[in-house]
Amino acid sequence: MSEIKQPEHNQALEGEPSPEELEAAQAANEFDAVQAELTALQAKNTELSENYLRAKAEAENARRRAEDEISKTRKFALEGFAESLLPVLDSLEAGLSLKETTLEQLREGSDATLKQLKSALERNKVIEVNPEVGARFDPHQHQAISMVPSEQEANTVVTVLQKGYLIAERVLRPALVVVAAPQS
User: Fold this and answer.
1) Is residue 95 pLDDT above 70, yes or no?
2) SS3 per residue for 11-23
3) Pairing of strands 164-167, 170-173
4) Is the dihedral of CA 3, 7, 9, 10 positive or negative?
5) The pTM is what?
6) Which SS3 state, helix, strand or coil, does residue 166 take?
7) Neighbour tally for 158: CB within 10 Å
8) Alpha-carbon distances of 144 from 124, 140, 149, 157, rounded to whole Å
9) Is the pLDDT of residue 130 over 60?
């Protein structure tokens, strides 16, 4: 009799993949999934890199614009101040161009010009520091030239030798003062 070979229990039936083939197919599917994930991550990395470069360029442009603005501000900072002083200059030139003036006219012109100058300074936040006699000595706004014995309270202003000025609440020039010495 001829022997018919019977399939072993370990062999797969025809048409069904073997466990090795199933394992290989599963590995191929995992590889394809990992490959797809890698491609997606590379695309995301490229997008993030482009976004980073764009943001970096925008920051650099903003920095450059700010530097330009600061440069222009510094360059033209005095423009308003100079413009407010031009009428004072005009008044002085007009007064000096007159050939024959009386002392009274000269005095009136000088007073008017001084008022213009004070007004221009005030508009530009240049404030006069002129402490009254008896006011407390303020080392932030006053500079003591000397101390003299006085009937006044110690550390108070006896005399103002020269007015001081503030600009935007910052000392431009301290007032030069003589201060009362402590009584012994």
Assistant:
1) yes
2) CCCCCCCCHHHHH
3) antiparallel
4) positive
5) 0.60
6) strand
7) 19
8) 27, 11, 14, 9
9) yes
